[in-house]
Amino acid sequence: MNRRYRKTIIAGNWKMNKTASETKKFAEELKAILPKAKWCDVVVCVPAVNIPAAMKAFKDVRVSVGAQNVFYEKSGAYTGEVSADMLKDLGVKYVIIGHSERRQYFGETDFTVNKKVLAALEAGLHPIICVGESLEQRELGITMELIALQVKSALAGVPAEKVRKCVIAYEPIWAIGTGKTATAEQAAEVCTFIRTTVRHLYGARIARSVTVQYGGSMKPANAAELLSQPDIDGGLIGGASLKAADFVEIVNAANQE
Ligand SMILES: O=C[C@H](O)COP(=O)(O)O
Question: What does the function comment of this entry state (predicted)?
Answer without folding.
Answer: Involved in the gluconeogenesis. Catalyzes stereospecifically the conversion of dihydroxyacetone phosphate (DHAP) to D-glyceraldehyde-3-phosphate (G3P).
